[in-house]
Amino acid sequence: MRMLVFFDLPTESVEDKRNYRRFRKVLINNGFMMMQQSVYCRMLLNQSASNSLAGLLRKHKPPKGLVQLLTVTEKQFACVEFIIGEKQGDVIDSDERVIVL
Q: pTM, whole model, 2 decimals?
């Protein structure tokens, strides 16, 4: 499974910028990888891991802005079509449990 986080947070005041940085840091510290600006993705093992992570993100939600979560299966995620640009080779996006680097 994959959890996608889409967010649009205000960055007008110093406090808004601080909240943006804090939320982004929570994502990175919990294993999310940036797919695009304000779109982050993380692999999950099962639905209970998804529920747990969603609860963590709700706990650390910023006071203003928009944050959305979408959980999809690996099969659905594999259907992502690149219209322009290309897949990044330095991002591990395999559903295998053991990855040899």
A: 0.80
Q: How far apart are the first and last CA of the chain?
A: 22
Q: What pLDDT band is residue 3 in, cutting at 50, 70 and 90?
A: very high
Q: Which CATH number applies to 2-77: 2.160.20.80, 3.90.1640.10, 3.30.70.240, 3.30.365.10?
A: 3.30.70.240
**How many other CB atoms are found less than 10 A from the CB of residue 31?**
13
d(CA 23, CA 26) in angstroms, rounded, equals 5
